[in-house]
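Archive entry. Fields below.
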Amino acid sequence: MVRFENVGLRYGMGPEVLRDITFGIEPNSFQFLTGPSGAGKTSLLRLLFLSLRPTRGLITLFDRDLSSLDADEVAVLRRRIGIVFQDFRLLDHLTTYENVALPLRVHGRDEVDYRAEVVELLHWVGLGERLHVLPPVLSGGEKQRTAIARALIGRPELLLADEPTGNVDPALARRLLRLFVELHKSGTSVMIATHDIALMDQYDARRLVLSDGRLHAED
Amino acid sequence: MGPFLPRDTVTGRALIMVVAIMTFLAALTVGAIDLVHEAASHWRSDMVREVTIQVRPVEGRDLEAEIGKAVEAAKRTRGIADVRALTRAETGRLLEPWLGAGLDLDTLPLPRLVVVRLAEGAESDLPGLRRALAESVAGASLDDHRGWAARLAAISDAIVFAGTAVLALVLAATVLSVSFATRGAVATNRAIVEVLHFVGARNSFIAGAFQRHFLAVGLKGGAIGGAAAALLFALTSIVSGFLALVPGGGEAQFLFGQFVLDRQGYAGIAGTVVLVAVVTTLTSRLTVRWTLRAID
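PREDICTED_STRUCTURE:
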């Protein structure tokens, strides 16, 4: 599904933040991406969701070589990936319902088609009573779940989450992890970037450890 | 469903006012061009409907007989509706403003005029008349006002050209203002643009979202500016109607016509509004696409 071969990344003329990264993400797999702060987790995620291009090496995503894609092809490929940002990135002028429905609107679907689907998903993440609330009014945990619902609504083949439990209490963190595990069981590949060891200890999965810009897999 | 872009960060009232002012200036220019064009063509058509034969007194010839010959020559010419020689008394009245009343005109060797009205719709044989006058009437010359008409045409063409240049400048200023505003709007909404990208929006989709907002700005600003200009012209025509009744108003009306914008003029203003809206929309679309390409 995803293949990195000797990938290196540097910002401008600075030092390489990622060096010789070689790994793969298989279909229907679950992995944690971990490492100390500043190790390059977010940079690696940004490479995975196509917001950065590597300075060297080869990235293949869904059997497509990323270096050969134009902007429109990148947009179409992104529809197969769900992303949960550490800072949520919700649109403050749209309600919870509208934020979650955003990917489907962008993909050109009619609201009549997806309304029930969005409402059901929001109930599933426990936001059934908060459909028409604007993000500034939501709590941290509610924002997090809205962001997760937005990432899931398009039924992505790959879900990437950057510190999804960073802003929530341990009980909610466990609930969110269960949500990711259920998603994995329904056939989606999941990669969670986290430095929360307690969270990783709750679920037995492959750990990709980044340190000093290099990646080691701990199966 | 709410719009992708929060309205208050994109369509600032200031930009609507800028577009309104630009449209107002552009519509005034279009209206002014139309008025000048109308007035000039009015003068021209009046002038070319009439020509004048001037008969100067020549030593040893009877002036009245020569005038009679000129009238006959004109009547024989094709495409002439009416020929009338001004009497001695009428000639005197024409000169009254300069020479004063009570002058004995018989003592002065004054030329006399024959007014020839051309038939409407028919082609008049003025070169034939000119030839006939040269051959048979002593001291006669034909003035078809061509020199005046050519000068008027040059003046009105120059005004139309200057107006078009002003219009181009106003449109260029609109393009630049909208371009700056769009870049500002994309920068302000950068986070939203990024989220739209991450959920799989194509650049054309994002550009469309901005374009819809700027079309609304263009239409709103354009409508305000165009309506203000149309109102100004309507008021001016009412005021000029009153002015015609005061001393000096008649002369102004002769120069500038009725100062009433015709249907074509108002259509021009409406066209300007549409043009400004289209220019605003296209400028924002292109600017967003360039900016998005830079982000990519």
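CURATOR_NOTE: The interface with chain B takes residues 49, 51, 71-72, 75-76, 78-79, 83, 89, 91-95, 98, 101-103, 105-107, 111, 150, 154 of chain A (CB under 8 Å).
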